[in-house]
Amino acid sequence: MTRIFFYHNAADRIAATAALIRKAHAQKKAVLVYAPEAEVAGALDRHLWMHPPTGFVPHVRGASPLAAETPVLIADRLDDLPQDERLVNLSADIPPGFSRFTSVIEVVGQSDGERHAGRNRVKYYKDRGYEIQYFDLSGKS
Fold this sequence. Notes:
It contains 3 helices and 7 strands. The termini are far apart. It has helices at residues 13-26, 38-50, 112-127, and strands at 3-10, 31-34, 59-61, 72-75, 86-89, 103-109, 132-136. 30% of the residues lie in helices and 25% in strands. A 7-stranded parallel β-sheet has the order 3-4-2-5-6-1-7, with helices on both faces.
């Protein structure tokens, strides 16, 4: 069964997602990021190019001819993509076909809208019997 991880209370959702991607990349793990909104996908793409200033995480958009050989993909749809290990969801909705992935990583910011959408996704997963692990990114104990 797919493992679900919720990283919540992110002060900067894009920066938090990029940090999780960098950590996975350092461990030589592939990541598929579901970002159907062009603005969100673009912000993550720019962040990965610029942070950290002395490092680089190889990444491309899902439609790129290099998608099959690049460890981090940013995609606006999930069909016909080569990765099925870990999915990072940057959508407000449940990612289509999420159960094909070994793990789903949800990153939730601090805005009311993001928190509400995150709660709806938690309920959806719980109602279907998925166990969820939570990680508070606020820095508070």
